[in-house]
Amino acid sequence: DCFIDCVHDLSLKLCNCTDPSLKLGEDVKICSLESDAHVCCLDDVLAGVMNRTFKCDCPLPCRKSTFDMILSSSVSLTKQDKHKVPEPSRESVQNNSDSRSGLLHNLPSANENFAKLRVFYKTLDHIIYRQQPKYQSNEIFSNLGGQLGLWLGISLVAWFEALETIYLLIGYVLSKRRIQEGEN
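Structure tokens predicted for Degenerin mec-10-like (184 residues):
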């Protein structure tokens, strides 16, 4: 992500270390979150990026996928969940003194050793944003001509007729002068 890279680079430049929550490169010094100087410097970098004191040139991507995440947790396994845990292999039973029945029927021990994980989409909506120009090039000239006609009461054809009349008038005046100069 461009924004994360920008914050990462700025924190390296200004703080000589980087935020441990950002993706790291090789041989990068990680800021200590126990050091007030490092925490203040990282806060200044983030504040500077947010209020545009530091410039991050990050254009909008052509394609982007985002997923909203909701996290919920439970402290213990239910009695229905303990029946869904697979039987341990023969080797693990021999190497471990806990059997399936002993481990799972002892719920505090089962809660420490097993986790139930569910992953699913929050919504199946799919949103597509498309950018299209408000006016095509031919529409600009059509609207300009229409506005000129509306406000000035003339059309493009009338403009060319007026220009043609002026051209013919100038030609007529010049030809009259030539004729008069020829007679003199």
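Helices lie at 2-15, 36-50, 79-82, 90-95, 100-105, 107-113, 137-152, 156-183.
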